[in-house]
Amino acid sequence: MSSSPPLTTMMMFKTTPTQRLKQTRKIYSCRHYQSILKIFYSESSTASVSSSILHYRSIQGRTFHSDKFVTEYSFPNDEQQLESVDISHHYLTVLLDGQLYMAPIGDNIQKALDIGTGSGIWAIDFADQFPQAEVTATDLSPTQPKWVPPNVRFEIDDATETWTWKDNAFDFVHMRYLFGAIQDWTALYQQAYRVCAPGGWVESVEADIHFRSDDGTAEEQEVYKVCNKLYEDGGKAIGRPFFVHELQPKGMEEAGFVDIKTVDYKVSFGLSRELLQG
Question: What residues form the membrane-spanning segments (predicted)?
């Protein structure tokens, strides 16, 4: 059985305070349901990687980020996970007709920020596409490759703590698949709003990991009910929800974004009954 829920894109415009009323920042968002992915259209102090950052935790044969950070990110940082990140990047690029983003950012991007870069694949591809842009990409773990375009720089940073970049530092802020990592989505978007220059864009891509189907049968399968309940209970236990598709628009509105437009995409999960039956 394949799960095939809808996918949404959202565009939001944000006005700035009094002296800059005519200037706007915008946000473009898109969701795809995973069975939904959600894309909603960030200078930091840097230091050399301390040895404690590399002290990964080992749990049931998988490695996770160092306990130096406040965030208890739920997913591993090992080669198996990085391969999964790269595969996700490729299917999302196919889903978006070969595009790396949905926001209408134009061709004159000068500074871009990628939050939660993982393997760094999105930032690398974006830097290749915009060689004139300075691309900064952050993650909890230094798992990115060393041979990258000269206009990419990777930084170790926790997106849930106070961002140290200056106001209006970036033309484009991109973040993807942070579900299960963020305690306060409004605070996250407030920081993105602050570091995004007027006229710039913020894009946030998340998956709704509820299992769904066009004919409604997936929702009735006990195994999917159990899986959804485990994710829901796990998110509550760690204070970082996995189901964030309703938190995104709410957080964006509270951060100051307006005129929100949402577009949903379906993404098949597994094989359909027809394929299984030959």
Answer: none
The model's pLDDT over 219-278, given as tens digits with 9 standing for 90+, comes to 788 888 898 899 889 888 888 888 888 888 899 899 987 767 677 788 777 666 665 565
Give the pLDDT mean for 72-89.
72
**Cα–Cα distance measured from residue 278 to residue 275, given in angstroms and rounded to the nearest whole number:** 5
- What is the Cα–Cα distance from 212 to 269, expressed in whole angstroms? 9
Bridge partner list, 154: 137
The angle, 0 to 180 degrees and rounded to 10, between the axes of the packed helices 79-95 and 121-129 is 40
The answer, yes or no, to whether residue 12 has pLDDT greater than 50, is no
94-97-101-107 Cα dihedral, nearest 10 degrees? 140
The CATH number given to 7-276 is 3.40.50.150
pTM of the model: 0.76
For residue range 31-46, list pLDDT tens digits in order. 444 434 544 543 333 4
Q: Which residues pair with 138 in a beta bridge?
A: 115, 155
The CA dihedral of 217, 89, 60, 139, to the nearest 10 degrees, is: -130
User: Could you tell me which residues are beta bridge partners of residue 31?
Assistant: 264
Calculated CA dihedral for residues 85, 87, 93, 97, nearest 10 degrees: -160
Query: Does position 16 have pLDDT exceeding 70, yes or no?
Result: no
Map out the domains of the chain as residue ranges: 7-276
